[in-house]
Each structure stands twice: as structure tokens, then as C-alpha cells.
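Archive entry: two folds, one per protein. Generate the first.
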Amino acid sequence: MHDDERPQEPKQGNGRARAAGGILVALGLAAAKFKAVLAVLFGLKWLVVLPKLLLSFGSMFLSVLLYAQWFGGWKIAIVFVLMILVHELGHFVTWRNYGVKASLPMFIPGLGAFVSAPPTGTPAQNVAAALAGPVFGVGAAAVCWAYAAFLGEPSLAPQARFWTSCAYIGFFVNLFNLIPTPPFDGGAIAGAIDGRLWILGIVLLGAWVILFWHSPFGFVILLLMLITAVPRVLAMMRGELDPRGSGLLPIQRAATFVAYIVVILIAVAGAAATHTQRA
């Protein structure tokens, strides 16, 4: 072998070593990045939140299927479910603003939806969260009504008639939810004002059930009233529950009463006007 060829052997060995080293470094970097990505992924809250999101949206989809059958169309069913969602987001956002870990809205097809929260809020926060749902819901109905007015006269414009019907449903559903008896929002609000208002709520709800006794929904409402409202009223009458024992200050109770009446009046006026327009 010539002298000028001898250095070529170590060069080849060094080249292989450098190539192997480069591959190992690359693999090491890839492993480090993969490990970092896994650490980030498993550290994210979405792994916990994702099942809740799927359950929430799944229940919403089932509600759309049911209401589409009831209302005779997908379009109004989707709008109706979205209005219920806005109502529940009123509770959710209010609770979250107070630092209370409320659950995502969960739909019960045919019965609306609910947001659950641990009993950690103050009395004022509790009643504010209860009021926020109907306020958001009436606001959503008002938006539908305003859009219908933008489209034109309901008797002349089919789309205006559709959105007026959506507004009516929104006003009526939130008004129904304001009946002062458990398990409705109106029951929580009335309990914060004066628990004796539950008696009025039971009378109103009982009258509604009598008028619509043939409806399966009426039977469910009657069952809910017997399970939730009647026992609390009986306990109150036995003196086991202070009818004004919500914990609110007098000024807070007065403000709650005024807000409650105002929301009811807006819902009544909106329902009456949209019912007339869509007729």
C-alpha cells in the first residue's frame, strides 16, 4: 500500500463514527422532544375536560333529535337548544366568575338542561347565579325577536315568522322556569326572597299540570314538584326551615325581588307580543 493511501482508513472510520454519532444525537433529540410532548399532553387539563365535553355535546345532540320531532323541524330544534344553552351558560359563567367550579351544561332531552355547582358560594352568589340563567335566556329570546323584526313583518316574511316563533319559545320557556318553586330557577330565587313564595309556585304549577294533564311532560313536572317542592314546603310549615333563611341582607333581598319581578315582566311581555305576531 502506498504511503499516500494510509490516512484514508482512519478517515473512513471517523466518518462512520460521526454518522453514528449524528444518528444517536438525532434519536436523542427526537426522544427528548417526544418525552416533552408527552409531558405537555398528559399535563393538560383537556384529558380530563374532553370526556365532559363529549358528554355535554352528546346530550345536546340527543336533545336536538327529540325537539326536531316535537317541533317538526331541525332548524327550530337547533335554535331552541342553543337558547337553552345560552340560559345554562348564564349560570355557568356566573359561577365561574365567582371562582366556583360549576359543571359544563348537561342536557336532559325533553326537560331542558342543568349546571351543577358545589355548595360553596355565598347566599348572594347563589341567587345571582340563579337569576343569571333566565336573564341570559330572555336576552337570547330578545335577540331572536330583534332579528325577526329586522327581516320584516312575520305575516309576510317566512324567515321573520320563524325567528318570531323561536323568540316566543325562548320567552315562554324562561318564564316557565321562573315559577317560584323548586326545582326551577324561580324556586331558588323565591327561596332567597321568602320561602313562602314556594306555596304560590306550587299552586301555579299545579294549575298548569291540570290544564295539560294529558301531556307526558305535565306528568314529569308533577313528579318533580312532588319530589322537590312539596317536601320543602311541608318542612317550612313545620318550622324546620326559616322562610326568610336564605342568608341575604335586607337590601340584597329587596334587590333580588325587584330583579325577579323585572325579568318576569319582560318575559311575559315578550311572550305575549311574539305569540300575537306569529299567530
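Generate the second and append.
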Amino acid sequence: MPHLVAIDLPGGPGFVDALRREWDAGNAVLPVDRRLPAPARAALLAALAPDRLVDEQGTTVLEGRGAEPGDALVVATSGSTGVPKGVVLTHAAVAASAHAVSEHLGISHTDRWLACLPLAHVGGLSVVTRALITGTALEVHDGFDVARVERAAIDGATAVSLVATALHRIDPALFRIIVLGGARPPAERPANTHTTYGLTETGSGVVYDGRPLKGVEVRIETDGEILLRCPMLLRCYRDGTTPLDADGWLHTGDLGQWLPDGRLHVEGRRGDLIITGGENVWPDTVEAVLQQHPHVAEVAVAGIDDPEWGQRVVAWVVPTAEGAPSLADVRAHVGAQLPVFCAPKELRLVDSLPRTALGKVQRHVLQGSRTGTGIDQ
């Protein structure tokens, strides 16, 4: 039986060589997030049970279990609480993703991919696997560093995968192609960027700029949930369970709609929808408006249980150096562009927002804390 090999190495040629070596041996790979504290790392290894570990000291045999023939990757899901799930992706699924993305973007032998996102997450790892499968040149960094990223572009890297916060820190004109994933993309972005929609369960983005990749089927249920079916989907979770229904559809838990021009618009996670006084409020929509306020550096919006409204709209704001907005400012700013029920009823000023490694705001962390200055109305 093939092994499941946990790779605990920094991003760089050593990681790529280890991945290639284990694949050549018929094994599957579990990338380990090196930023995890010791208890979280131990919990990850216990939950996903690799039977081999590769790190700077060499290879260690663990009391885990192997993989199934054809399995390529086990990727821990991100942004959730509790015991991590391992998404099992086969070689066929990884190859389908690599070829579909490369064809859509027009990647050729003259391109060079730069991987600078965390390799323990599918957004970063898929850059590496895509390059290996298609034979495209590849450069891998151990994390995002502005100077190194821009130097890589000057030295010949033409394509990169980034999150929105990283995009703002570099000169985007240095790259031919920038793939944006993770957090909500900026409202205004350079013409060479491509927004993506996908999950760990889809092995990377499967909808680019609102349009499904070749071979990707998208269905929207009557309640607005997005369903996906494509050759990139996971085989199962590491515990043997599957999120696929009997017809092979992945129920994403995301809600969306088709725009008049045929593009898919993703509203957000079903659980993120705020229902206040019987009205539906999407956090992303309110955040996009508040981000335009001159005294808002960063913002997150979520719903908090409220005895009168069912939920009340709350905004967590990182103020700019010039000063902090008041609740009245925030409400007036939102009310000028959106229905009044979208305006926050509470403002909490914070120093920073909790985010995943790929830049997604962890709303459940905000909802479970009283961090910040609460201002009710």
C-alpha cells in the first residue's frame, strides 16, 4: 500500500524535490503548516495519521496509515474549528486542475510560476503541483516577501498566485498573470489579475472571473446554494467520509447567483448571511462599501444574536492613522449606498482582524469574542 508522507520542510527546492520523490515512489503527500505551534501540529498529525514524516532530519516512520493507490495529496482544510479534515485528492484530480487552469490562462513553456503562498494550503500548493504536472518552470519561496517576489518577477517569473493583501504590496505590472484567491478581491484590480472561486475540496479554483473552467459543472439550487461537479473534486476526506451526493455533486455551502452576462456571483457562505429584522444582509457587500470610508483601513462585518432583531449587523474596523470613524459615520456611509437595514448597529474598533493564512477573515472568531470598543445603537 502507498504511504501517506507528511512533508515538514520550508518552501523551496527541498520541498519540491521531496514531493516529486514521494510521487515517483507512488506515495501521497500531506504538507505540514510549519507555522503551527507544537500542540496544533501534533493534533494535525494525529487526525490525518500519516505513516511517514519527512523533515530536515530525514524520514521518520509514524504509527499512522497509508494511502490508497492513485492518491496524490491530503490537504488539511483551513479556516474551521475543531479537528482538521484532510481532503484526499487523486493524481487524476490534480492533473485535471493543472491542465484546465493552464489552458484557461494560456500558460506556455515561456512562463514561470512563482509559488509564495503557504504550501500547506491548496492555494499555494496547487501552484507547485500545476508546474510539476505541466512541466512549467517554477520558483518556490518560503512565504511572501515583497522584495523577493518583485525580484523573482524581474528575473523572469511571469505568473503568480496571491491574496488581496499581498496584491496591494507589490507592483502588479511586473507579472503577466496574477491569480487571486483567498479573501474577497478588491473592487478595482489590474487587468492582468484573475479572481478565482474554489475550495480545498476542488483542489484549487474552478471558476475564474465568474466563468467555470473547462469540464466544471455549476448548478445553483432553488435556495441559492452552489453545487459543483468536475474531475478536480476530492475522492473523500481522510476519515473515509465524502461530501459528494449520489450524483457526484459537491454541496459547497456557498450561496450565489448567475449574473445577466452568464458569470457566477458568489454571495458568501450560507452561515455568513445576516438576517436582521427579516432582511437579508451579505457581509461582503457591506464590507466593500465600508472599505471606501477614508478612516477605515480594514473591516469585517458579521451578525451577532440580538433579542430584538434576530441578528444585528456588527462592523469590526481597523482605523487608519488619521483617525477612527464613529458609528454615525459608518451608518451614514453605508446608508448612502445600501438599504438602511444593511447599516451596522454596532461598531467595534480593533487593532487587527483574525485571518487565515490565505487572508480570509475568520468571522467566527470575531463573533465569539468581545474584542474591541463596542458602540451600540
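Annotation attached to the second fold: The chain has nine helices and 24 strands. The chain has a mean pLDDT of 92.
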